[in-house]
Amino acid sequence: MDNNEKAKKNTKVKIPLGVFAVVLLFILYSPLVYADTLKEGVITAECLNVRQTPSTSATVVGQLLKDTDIIINESSNDWYNITYGDLKGWVFGDYVTIKEASTPSSGESSKPVESAGNENNKTGVVTATVLNVREAAGTSSKVVAQLENGMEVKILEEDNTKDKSGWYKVNYINTNGWVSGEYISFKDEPIDEGTVNVGVANIRVGPGLTANVVTQLEKGNKVNVYSWYGEWYKIKLEDGNYAWIFGELVTTRKALASRGNSASRSDSNGEDRSGDLRQRVVNYAKKYLGVKYVWGGTSP
């Protein structure tokens, strides 16, 4: 075998080895992004920044308070891509606790409810004066919380095996459980009327200070209230779209205070963490009553 033939033979061996080395390096040093199945998590930091990309130098697009429930879409190294209402972005994983997946009871047949519009889940409004939230679908199941008339809940699942009226698994702030579908309405009907009581009120796309401001209403403007969530009222704008206003900024026929506290979650230690969260939101928002909104500012 002459030198030319030897060179050709060596070349044939080196090409696949070189390609293999390049592929191996690409795999080892590429950013690791996992397309996980959707999970639920809870914020553990007092106030956690939500960023545009998974980096501490990325733009902050919102903030979430402690004990806020979130949906985890995917993970990238030490970061989670999350959704909270209309807020989407990345948070550092050290400040998020992943919830354990719940296992359906034997004999029950439940199905997820498809998304409605831009919402993460379908929503309904409580029609009963006081509605029991139960551990499982059925009147014999343990009551874990109660909801009040007019509260807006997220519909997570539907179970039609118990009776013909059906049962829904719902979420309200930090409360999760099953309610009878007989007392949940999906009709587009106002439950109250109100009047803006401050100079200028910010109107947001969702019930929270992190939601974007879509417009403003001046003192004296009338609004129809379709539901309430925590300390926020859901109203309808002139263009037919729904939006949210902080309850302290509206005087309604049925005073917000008369509705009492929102439903609580029964923790193993008996504490009501949702009450603390609501109070922090109320105290924060009160500082800005009547403040003119500036894009990028911190007014509610």
Write a short abstract of this structure.
With 300 residues, the chain is mainly beta.
| Strand elements, count | 23
Using the alpha-carbon principal axes, give the shape. globular
The total of helices stands at 2
CATH architecture of the domain at 123-185: Roll
What ranges have pLDDT less than 50 throughout 5 or more consecutive residues? 28-36, 102-120, 260-282, 284-300
Rg for CA atoms: 25 Å
Portion in helices: 10-25%
Could you spell the SSE succession in H and E letters?
HEEEEEEEEEEEEEEEEEEEEEEEH
Instruction: Please give the alpha-carbon distance between the first and last residues.
Output: 83 Å
Sheet with most strands: 6 strands, antiparallel
Mean pLDDT: 73
Strand percentage: 35-45%
Per CATH, the superfamily of the domain at 123-185 is SH3 Domains
CATH topology of the domain at 123-185: SH3 type barrels
- What is the CATH class name of the domain at 123-185? Mainly Beta
Secondary structure category: mainly beta
